[in-house]
Amino acid sequence: MSGPSPTPAHEPTRQRVLRAARQALHIVVVELGTPTEPGTPLFGSVQKPWLRRLPYLVAFGFAVSLLPTTITILSHDYGLGGGLAGALATAQTAPLLLAVTRPLQAWWVIFTADIVCALALTGADGVAGRAWPWPPMVIVGYLALMVALSLRERSRTLVAVWLTTGVAGILFEPRTPDRSDGTWVLLFVLTGVVLMMGATLRERGDAQRKLIEQETISEAERARRTLLEERTRIARELHDVVAHHMSVITVQADSAPYRLSGLPREAEEEFGSIAATARESLAEMRRLLGVLRSEETERHGGPEKAPQPGIGMLPKLVEGTVRAGVPVELSLPEDGVPLEPAVDLSAYRIVQEALANVVRHAPGARTRVSVTTAADGSRLTVLVVNSAPPAPSAPSAPLETTGTGHGLIGMRERVRLVDGSLDTGPLPDGGFRVAAQLPLSPPPAAAASLSPKDSGSV
């Protein structure tokens, strides 16, 4: 006579429990069958060669030491046959070498061998009074395997391995031989501790690597942003130069009919069209300037709207540097040298950046600034040399920093703008040297070096 059928109230609960059990079993099977980065060696991404070889050496050491020990204990202490003991010992220890690159696959082999070994020891003569189902050498090899697993696999996989180890021990508990010491609880606890510690170390290492990668990316982005800011600054300054020339064109075109008598009507209309086009271009340039100028400069009415400086203003710059506590000697060409606006501005900014670096990094160092022209009149040489700084001392007055950029980055961009060359570097006596060669007549295409093609977007 069959028992009472389950009531409708209990049926949904039983179904939910069975469904949850099936889902949990499915997750365990999936996790145990899906290794992470199979074939990739442990510590394979580290740069030090000895660290990359360390997992192989450790695995080899465990394998060669546990193999003969396991054979001896299984055959002499537990009374297993020599052939069976050798086969089981090999299956339990040799896969440790595989654990360096495929720890989850190695676990499958070793765990299966441990189960077979426990079953074989059930009927062995020497098992009474000894550890069972996991002999001591099995525990040592299994914990070594757990270290490799914890350094590679996901947390869910580690939990699945840990639970599977515990379930196997629970299933063996009713079959424990008389007077044998049950070791499944010991292995279960030690496995959990090793897996937790290894996973913690792995997650900490991953977090440190991600932090280093993020810092590297941030540093690269910071350098790129600095470069773009400097190029934008140069573009703003060149805009002022171009706007001045456009204003001159407008005035000349408007005044041509009054300055030149006897012009045909068509010529007057042509000059009028040129003046109108120049005014429209100038208006567009002013709108562009509004985009290029920084918000802070527009709000406070900064000095960017002042005329752009040139080498004629270097004496004033040197005077401000001397007030800042840096003795500077200035040498300029005796006869005025006509310079293109871009070259004149670049020469001034290079000297300004170099003196600012002296004030910041070598306060009080004697500095020599010279601006010379080549004998053939083809280039302008800007040289700034400072000696080693004396004892540290605070500058007595701030250096003029109006319009300065980003040190050597700004110098390189200004030299590249006019198709020149820059040579910088420390001196044997502890000083520093900045030497720039600027062509007196830069090629018209030099300004194209600031195009978005080379710099991203400006």
TrEMBL record:
Instruction: Report the GO molecular function annotations.
Output: kinase activity
The UniProt record lists the Histidine kinase/HSP90-like ATPase domain at 346-441
**Would you indicate the residue range of the signal peptide?**
none
Q: Which CDD domains match?
A: HATPase_UhpB-NarQ-NarX-like
Q: Which residue range or ranges hold the Signal transduction histidine kinase subgroup 3 dimerisation and phosphoacceptor domain?
A: 230-295
Q: Which reaction does it catalyse?
A: ATP + protein L-histidine = ADP + protein N-phospho-L-histidine
Question: What UniProt keywords apply to this chain's record, in alphabetical order?
Answer: ATP-binding, Kinase, Membrane, Nucleotide-binding, Phosphoprotein, Transferase, Transmembrane, Transmembrane helix, Two-component regulatory system
What EC number(s) are associated with this protein in UniProt? 2.7.13.3
Q: Which InterPro entries match?
A: HATPase_C_sf, HATPase_dom, Sensor_HK_TwoCompSys, Sig_transdc_His_kin_sub3_dim/P
Query: Which Pfam families is this protein grouped with?
Result: HATPase_c (PF02518), HisKA_3 (PF07730)
Listed name of the protein: histidine kinase
Q: Which organism is it from?
A: Streptomyces decoyicus
Upper lineage is: Bacteria, Bacillati, Actinomycetota, Actinomycetes, Kitasatosporales
